[in-house]
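Hi V.,

Quick status before I head out on leave. The structure for the redesign project is tokenized and pasted below; the design run finished overnight.
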């Protein structure tokens, strides 16, 4: 059976363990890089959109033209679970866009700074309108990370399937590798039994190749 502590099974387990560990570490590194790169890309994209909104909305905010501010908010590309708002300098909400009616933005979410926060379900972005020392208002984006999370799940599932396929290939290759080693060790064991039983020290192990194992068998027999 596979789990018996024979030489060939132990060799197979060593080969599989090393290969599986190497693959797991490799996929972990790739997964971390994939997560970081996609997360940073999403943050950069929406920070860029927030800066454009702040520039386009500046005049309307100064005039407190709600209709123009709403037109600016409608120009941003967001998925159905995201929302956005524009506040004046003292935190009063001038306009809000809520795509599905479930992500209402209140005045308590106002933050007089340019910043972002990656939360469990949303990416929150604040962008000052105007200069820091003469703030006219703040653009606030509440972006759902649902699409990002789905991409991660798809990547994780794909990686798992690839890892399983590679494991099967490694198992087949490792089985052949350990067979070439274990067969010669088993042959040496059989020869030693014959020598001990018959007392005939002229018996030799057949040569297969010219590697370290063959030279070891030559010295032993």
């Amino acid at each position: 059976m596979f789990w018996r502590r024979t030489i060939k099974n132990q060799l197979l387990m060593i080969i599989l363990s090393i290969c599986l560990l190497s693959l797991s570490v490799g996929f972990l590194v790739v997964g971390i890089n994939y997560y970081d790169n996609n997360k940073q890309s999403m943050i950069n994209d929406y920070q860029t959109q927030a800066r454009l909104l702040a520039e386009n909305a500046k005049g309307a905010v100064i005039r407190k033209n709600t209709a123009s501010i709403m037109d600016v908010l409608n120009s941003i590309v967001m998925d159905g679970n995201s929302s956005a708002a524009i506040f004046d300098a003292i935190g009063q909400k001038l306009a809000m866009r809520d795509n599905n009616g479930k992500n209402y933005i209140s005045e308590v979410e106002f933050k007089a700074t340019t910043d972002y926060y990656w939360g469990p379900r949303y990416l929150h972005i604040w962008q000052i309108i105007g200069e820091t020392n003469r703030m006219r208002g703040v653009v606030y984006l509440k972006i759902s990370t649902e699409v990002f999370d789905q991409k991660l799940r798809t990547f994780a599932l794909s990686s798992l399937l690839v890892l399983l396929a590679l494991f099967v290939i490694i198992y087949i290759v490792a089985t052949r590798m350990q067979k070439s080693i274990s067969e010669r060790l088993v042959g040496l064991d059989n020869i030693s039994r014959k020598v001990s039983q018959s007392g005939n020290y002229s018996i030799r192990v057949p040569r297969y190749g010219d590697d370290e194992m063959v030279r070891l068998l030559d010295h032993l027999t």
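Above is the designed sequence. The chain has a mean pLDDT of 82.

G. will cover questions while I'm gone.

Best,
W.
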